[in-house]
Amino acid sequence: MSAVLKQKRRAAARRQVPSTPSAPPRQRTPAAEPPLHEREYWQAALRSRLRNEPADVSTPDASRLLRLAELFGFSPFETDCVATLWTSAHSTEWRAELAARDVFPGHVTVAGLARSFGHASRVRLASESPLRLWRIVAEHPFVEGTAALSLDPHIIAWLDAEHELDRSLIGHVRLLPSSFELPSWRLDEHARRIGAGLQANERWRIRLCGGDSTSAHACAAALAGRLGVLALCVNAEAASSEEARERAVRVQRQAFLDRCALCWSARDAPLAWPGEVAPFPVQFVVGSDALPADARLRDIDILLPEPDASERRALWLSATPAAAAWPAHALDDLALRFDASPGEILRAAATEPRDAEEAAARIRTATLDDLDGLAQRLACPFTWDDLVVPAGVRERLEDVAFEARERARLWASPDAARQYPQGRGLVALLAGPPGTGKTMSAQVIAAALGLDLLRVDISRILSKWVGETAQHLQKVLSSPSSRRAVLLFDEADALFGKRIEDARQAQDHFVNMDLSHLMVALESYTGVVLLATNLRANVDAAFVRRIRHSIDFAMPDMAARGAIWLRAMQALFGAPLSDQTRDAAARAARIEASGAQIKNAALSAAFASRRLQRAPDAELLGSMLARELAKDGAGLSAREMATTLGIAQ
């Protein structure tokens, strides 16, 4: 910390900064590093005054002690106090001389200093003395009727030009490095306004609104740099209000000594403004909705919007050296598809992803589960080749996937966004009988987009309490994890059903009110939503009007059933299949069934063939499929199955 402070303070010393806590800020030329023998000068000057002799040394060109006195508004007596305590801390001979002249009878005392250097008689420091208020000098129990004094060790180190952090602040503060800045922050505009105010003796409290903590800290560091100071983050919670007051004073003192704008977290803000000392003229506050009133400070809010695609692209390039070698379209796609925060991008970049796909995977895995069980992730192992649907359905599904990938580029156009202020999300309805491939289609689309698939738990969304259903849905639609995934509402008619037209009871009105809230929430959502239902007619017409794509799934024909049988058998029995097994699958395809029923029957047949230790034949496949059909009350008799399969009885 001390090395960083020393290097950065030298760089900042040539720029304009706010100056003193006791006087209005003004432009000043900071002193260079003090001469090596400044202590000797003050010791000689004090000795001459003590002996009533003329001073025989010249004043240093740049005195840190005089700068300290100017910063905190010392009186001549207070300056003599600090000079005596500082010089005596380094010289045993000088301490002996002070003791011999009754200034230092074992301790440097207020009365001894006042008497020896020609000041008005006093026995203790004034209550409003900056030495006390700023914890520069500590008063100890009276010695022979007067207060003994000691100089704070951090002040001794500062006067000795040792740029170190106050040891009581170690672990509580840290320097904020200048890492990045975004054009949307408009820092030049804010710096001009704040800088003009500083020249007019104003002090500023700058609230950083929105964005994540990484953005807020980067903004504070960048704006502080424009104002010619460093940024010091106060990031620890005090154990008590007394601790908070002591720490706040020392933090403000450190800010003046090393010219650091302070950046407070919201939890510290209510405790961090002691009224007895003046705050440094530039203070940042992160993540606070309400701040305590302080007439000494002017408040300004700086909005930190989420970065757009171009800003995210620039962040990826600056944070990931390898990104410059990635294909341009892959980098563009990464920035468009994932509205990651700067903090997420920097954390993902720290893992050194090899390509854009790996970077996208880092963002996906880093997204926290913030849905409290309202949705679950579904594995997406399927590709377009695994999907067996009619050509027309396949084309509509590909349209959905293409729009989901391309829409970010479309809405990046200001004209397009202006014409469509709402309804920028993508909602598709997948309707059809159970087992016809609706969920599998959602998995294929999510896999093609490189996104997670979140299946919303309708049973958790629905609530008997008024308004709670809409609250649950709003939580799902507003969560970061949902915005970076494809949402699947299975059995969507249970949630988006028809409104009650002849509402006579209070409960009916509440149901209609919930449905209205759901429609508004869905229309405002900007992500990808897939609604799956077995009963399309049960979905409210108002919802249908808000749906971009409506795709009807039908029961598979014989050719499709044969393809599903073959793919399931190849997965379970290994490829290539024997002619006997292929013939059995072709015969089983004669029985009308859904794709899910066929896959379940094939799985049952795999276990049965292992138990019987024989290859599956048409009779085995047919009997397993008959079990699945019987679950829905559509079982086959032995005669019907034999006839359909062409098996002799």
Molecular structure report:
- The protein is of the alpha/beta class and 649 residues long.
- The protein has five domains: 34-159, no CATH class; 167-303, P-loop containing nucleotide triphosphate hydrolases (Rossmann fold, 3-Layer(aba) Sandwich), CATH 3.40.50.300; 309-366, no CATH class; 375-552, Rossmann fold (3-Layer(aba) Sandwich); 558-645.
- Helices cover 47% and strands 12% of the residues.
- It has 28 helices and 15 strands.
- The strands form three sheets. A six-stranded mixed beta sheet has the order 4-6-7-8-5-9, sandwiched between helices. A six-stranded mixed beta sheet has the order 10-12-13-14-11-15. It has a three-stranded antiparallel beta sheet with strand order 1-3-2.
- β2 (137-143) and β3 (146-151) form a beta hairpin.
- α13 (328-337) packs parallel to α15 and α24 (558-573) packs across α25.
- Mean pLDDT is 82; it is low at 1-36.
Structure characteristics:
12% strand; 649 residues; Rossmann fold; disordered N terminus; six-stranded mixed sheet
Q: Give me the CATH superfamily of the largest domain.
A: P-loop containing nucleotide triphosphate hydrolases
Mean pLDDT score: 82
Quaternary structure of the protein: single chain
Q: Label the overall shape.
A: elongated
Number of strands: 15
Structural class: alpha/beta
- Rg, Cα atoms, Å: 38 Å
Terminal-residue CA separation? 90 Å
The main sheet comes to:
6 strands, mixed
Low-confidence stretches: 1-36
Strand percentage lies at 5-15%
